[in-house]
Specification:
Length: 299
């Protein structure tokens, strides 16, 4: 298929690469041109100078950029895709953004005869690289079906929730769980460390009991290695937490635990951890507890 891929960061880069490797005709665009260049050097594909140029000759536009403002930029700016939207053009947005904003953008594309599917992902950097993402999807059934050959290359499962914005609604609720589960894991580890229980011992207990989770399985080894290089950058998790809180206000839902976690992430971002992995919030809790990383945990 002819695909325009907009946004080749941690997630979009490997997603676009997998599409190219599978033989799709992919035109990539990234705000910083060097990231698009790195992909072309590694696996091929065509590079466009603007979202509109990438979309002009494509059947599908796949977006994977940071936040609501970034999606609005690639769609609505003078060189955005709205200018070339037409009947038959299908936009698939894998960015985690506001469900309300996603519905508004979809309306603009639909007014020009195109269609829009929100398809946020889970599986992190490793899932993107291995083509094992899970897509959580909102949109018209026929349009979702058209994306099937591309979902198959980039992911292992597609869960179609309902109409536009419903993929994002489920994704935000899902990330709420990840933020709270990780906070529980980190706070438990810090309390244990302060009491003299090693991180390795605690992770061993967690792995052997009902505390075990996808979050502890994935993040545990990184914590032990004290590897906080970004898989999911902290500033993006903070962005998601704020999206959840905004959406909760819109829907008249109270999220007291998440409100507290937002404060932890906000302080961590102020303390220069914004571009580290969100797991680096552990180091802030350690600092507040007056402990430094025990020798057994140091990389
Ligand atoms: P990333 O590595 O920081 O990449 C962000 C991308 O957005 C880059 O291509 C960046 O361009 C582009 N961008 C940012 N602001 C822009 C703007 N104003 N206009 C145009 N492009 C802009 O982030 P990522 O981890 O790939 O995340 C992408 C999306 O996937 C986010 O919504 C994130 O929440 C979601 N997500 C991430 C993960 C994960 O584990 N990383 C998992 C699930 C979902 P530049 O290269 O020029 O900065």
């Amino acid at each position: 298929m002819k695909v325009a891929f907009l946004g080749t960061g941690i997630m979009g880069g490997p997603m676009a690469s997998n599409l190219i490797k599978a033989g799709h005709e992919v035109t990539i665009w990234n705000r910083s041109a060097e990231k698009a260049q790195r992909i072309q050097d590694a696996v091929g594909g065509r590079i466009a100078v603007s979202p509109a140029e990438a979309a002009a000759d494509s059947q599908i536009v796949w977006i994977c950029v940071s936040d609501t403002e970034a999606v609005e930029r690639v769609v609505l700016a003078e060189d955005g895709i709205l200018g070339v939207a037409r009947p038959g053009l299908l936009v698939a947005d894998s960015s985690t953004i506001s469900p309300t904003a996603s519905r508004a953008l979809a309306k603009r594309i639909r007014e020009r005869g195109g269609d829009w599917v929100d398809c946020p992902v889970t599986g992190s950097k490793r899932g993107a690289e291995e083509g094992k993402l899970v897509f959580i999807v909102g949109g018209d059934g026929e349009s979702v079906e058209k994306l099937e050959p591309l979902f198959q290359v980039m992911g292992q499962r597609v869960i179609h929730i309902g109409g536009i914005g419903m993929g994002l609604s489920a994704k935000l609720a899902m990330n709420l769980n990840i933020a709270l589960i990780f906070e529980g894991l980190a706070e438990g580890l810090v309390l244990a460390q302060k009491a003299g229980v090693g991180m390795g011992q605690m992770l061993d207990i967690i792995g052997a009991t009902m505390l075990r989770s996808g979050v502890s399985d994935y993040k545990g080894p990184f914590l032990q290695q004290r590897d906080f290089s970004p898989n999911f950058p902290l500033h993006l998790m903070l962005k998601d937490i704020r999206l959840m809180l905004d959406y909760a206000r819109e829907l008249r839902v109270k999220l007291p635990a998440l409100e507290t976690v937002e404060e932890v992430y906000a302080v961590a971002a102020d303390e220069d951890l914004a571009n580290a992995d969100y797991a680096a919030t552990l180091t802030l809790l350690e600092k507040w507890a007056g402990i430094s990383a025990p020798a057994e945990n140091q990389a």
